[in-house]
Amino acid sequence: MKRALTTLALIAGLSAPAYASECGGNFNAFVKDLRKEAQANGYDAGLTKRFFANVRQDQNVLAADRRQGVFQMDFTSFSRRLISQGRINTGKRKAQEYSAVFDRIERDYGVSRGVLLAFWAFETDYGGFQGDINTLNALVTLAHDCRRPELFRPQVFAALELYRQGNFDPQRTTGAWAGEIGMVQMLPADILENGVDGDGDGKVSLKTSATDALMSGGKMLQHLGWRAGEPWLQEVQVPADMDWSLSGTAQALPISKWQAMGVRPRSGAWDGKGLKAKLILPQGRKGPAFVAYPNFDVYFEWNQSFTYVLTAAYFGTRLMGGPVFDAGNPEPGLEGADMKALQRKLAARGHDVGKIDGILGAGTRAATQAEQKRLGLPADAWPTRALLNAL
Q1: Who's near 47: CB < 8 A, 6+ residues apart?
Q2: Is 243 a domain residue?
Q3: 41 to each of 12, 14, 34, 45, 336, how far by Cα in Å?
Q4: Could you report the per-residue pLDDT of 115-163, keeping only the tens digit for each?
Q5: What's the pTM?
């Protein structure tokens, strides 16, 4: 899980850096500038020398950063890949084993156990595999790379602050390829801000203490805006014909409005009848359908992938006893070269779809819906062959 972060000054409590470490160029020179920047902000020269002494560029990290083809999968395929009966059974056991911890999290931070269980499962298989990549190498490699330096450069200094506090070993701390650490995979700056010593041993140990990891994750979600005691996602049934342009992540309507249009919970009553919600159709009007309550937006503060976020949110409902979603009978979507062709056509018409990568992200969905509406097609934001041909 990773998110856009604040500046170095806000993360580590430092003054504005005196050196600007530009991305790209010679790696060793970049590291040298990082050391100068740290010292200019008050860190001891000996400490910074030890911290950066063995850092190296990791080509495997760069390869992983560019190889995220799993996010090209549609929601149904992706969710079936990630959600196994084994993960469900383990989640139920973990909910019982750590029941008292989850009670504390719900009391102190207002976050449901289903939400954290789902993250715990997806990120590290309940702590079973937390990543074996050297964290400092990963962070410096990604800070040096010019794709997202604004995200990763501050994390290097956050790791330095953890090191100064005795909570980070630059040679032995390992985690995911993108620098996340521990059972729920938190970046160093988020550990500084939201790390909790849940088991009372005087340390925040996200790699070895499930209690610390879960409490820290709950605090972080609260920090990101989680609304205590409110739902986050609910499966619904939609009528055969309605104004599909009202669906998507851009606008929320009161539940009473959706109800008036014929939207109904697939089972039971409305979870958040007094709230506003967004109608989410991940595979168009003929596929699965959900309403997303305000807490759903917090997921995007932790991960930017629409498919991952929706799957994590849905899995949280499953772990709380919700039913298997109805996959429906969606129209075939676009994949690979066809999706890239659509993105190029949308970009040529002035839409911001981001990188032409074949991934159906938020920008491509919004552009698809706009063009569907312009062309008189059902504006459900699901790109099909009919739309590609029409463009």
Answers
A1: 163, 164
A2: yes
A3: 10, 6, 11, 11, 47
A4: 999 999 999 999 999 999 999 999 999 999 988 899 999 999 999 999 9
A5: 0.90
SS3 324: coil
User: CA angle, corner 218, sides to 118 and 293, nearest 5?
Assistant: 65
Residue at which a domain ends, from 319, 349, 378: 319
Q: Are residues 315 and 375 in the same domain?
A: no
Structure tokens at 314: 């849905």
Cβ partners under 8 Å of residue 278, min gap 6: 247, 248, 249, 250, 251, 252, 253, 291, 292, 296
- Domain assignment of residue 244, given as a range: 233-319
Separation between Cα atoms, residue 148 and residue 132, nearest integer Å: 22
Clarify whether residues 260 and 297 are in a common domain: yes
Dist. CA 187–CA 257, nearest whole Å: 40
Task: Examine residue 140 and state whether it is found in any structural domain, yes or no.
Answer: no
The string of pLDDT tens digits covering residues 355-371 is 898 889 889 999 999 99
CB proximity list for 332: less than 8 A, separation 6 or greater: 384, 385
> Helix crossing, 27-40 with 45-52: angle to 10°?
150
Count of structural domains within the chain: 2
Q: What is the b/e burial string over 269-279, where b = at least 16 CB atoms within 10 angstroms of the residue's CB?
A: ebbbeebbbbb
Residue 21 confidence (pLDDT):
58
Q: Which amino acid is at 12?
A: A
Query: Token match 């000054």: residue?
Result: 9
Q: How confident is the model at residue 5 (pLDDT cuts 50, 70, 90)?
A: very low
3-state secondary structure of 235: strand
Q: Which of 277, 293, 319 is the last residue of a domain?
A: 319
Residue 179 in contact with residue 188, Cβ under 8 Å? yes
